[in-house]
Each structure stands twice: as structure tokens, then as C-alpha cells.
Input
Amino acid sequence: MLTVKNLHVAYGDIQVVWGVSLEVPDGAVVALIGPNGAGKSTTLKAIMGLLPPRAGSVEFRGAPITGQPPHAIVNSGLTLVPEWRGTFSTLSVLENLELGAFPRRARPLKEQTLQEVFHIFPRLKERQNQSAGTLSGGERQMLAIGRALMAKPEMLILDEPSLGLAPLIVEDIFRVIQQINDQGVSILIVEQNVQLTLETAHYGYIIESGHIVQKGACADLIRDPRVKEAYLSL
Output
């Protein structure tokens, strides 16, 4: 579904990503893990058109999307939930969700999708008229994911969905990620909670200093002594 080939990305003269290649098959959950500053979020920004790559290509459903503006990429069926949520604090929960349905593909299905989101996140339905700025961190993450789902994506990219959340809320978020995938949405996830990520994802890539240094089925990575030592504290 998503194919990234030999991606190079820089901030001005400082190159951060060096020749990253990865694939997300249709219906899969794929993890991109690595230490802070390794280039994970930069890779996601380049995929979504938020940063122009120096070299390389990105294809979604077989069509090139390299160089396209972010709104065009979202319209194609690929949606990002950014780090630190990005919800609009002064708008209500319902208004935030409705903003997510702006792509042409999503507008006719807005009311149906809204009910689907409320089914996944009953708490959002309870708080639909409440200002987003009054929500807890976990609720704001639910809102960010719900708003992304309103765009009717075929694939969802999640950047640090558990960042700053309490352990029990983190488990809830990962259950939701599994539920979304079970409904047929492909997922690419960047996440510091490596244990839960590898238990949830099907395939994983490890990035260090802007290079992919290891990849494989998550069932194999979670047993790998190098992964255990570096990321699982085992």
C-alpha cells in the first residue's frame, strides 16, 4: 500500500534521514522504532508532504505522492496523527471531529463516520459539546485519532500516540489501534513504547542515526537479543 524508496531528508544543510526504504502492505500494522533523534518523525513528515525530500520516492496505492501537498495526500486516503495531538483547544470535540471530514471522499459519509468514531471512543460522544482544551491527555489523543478517522483513511500514520500518557491509557490506545486495523485500515506507527508496539505490529523497522539498521517480523524482532538489549531492557 505504501512504498518508500531510498528517502533522504534534510533540514537545511543538516541531513537527518539517509536512504530510508520501507513498505506497509495492505491491511498491515508496521512499526518504525528507534531512539530519540533517529529520524522517525522526519521520515513521517516527508511521507506526508510536510518536508520535501532531497532524494527518493514515496508511492501510495501504486501512485507517486512525492512532492504533493499534504491536503492532496490526505485526499488520496493517507492520514497522519501528529505527535502532541494537534487538536484545536477552543473548538468543541464535535467541531474538531467534523473538521476531519474535509476530504471529498469523506464528506458524504460524515454522519455515518461520526457514529463509528463514537462507537470506538464512547468518551468522545459523552464530551462532544465540551471544549477540546478541557480534555485530559488521553482524551485528546482519542480525539486526534478520531479526527483522523473522520477523513476515511485507507492508511493511518501514528506519531508517538502514547506520548505523555498514563500506562492504563496507553493500553487503551493500543487496543484501539488494534481495533482500527481489524476494520481494514493499514497503520504505520512510530512509538517509544517498543514492547507494546512490537506486540501489536506485524512487521518492524529499526532506524538509528537516519539509517534503517534492522527489519523483520515483529515476532522475530521481539526475541532478538540486540533488540532486547537496546529497546526492551531485557
Observations:
- The longest strand covers residues 14-24.
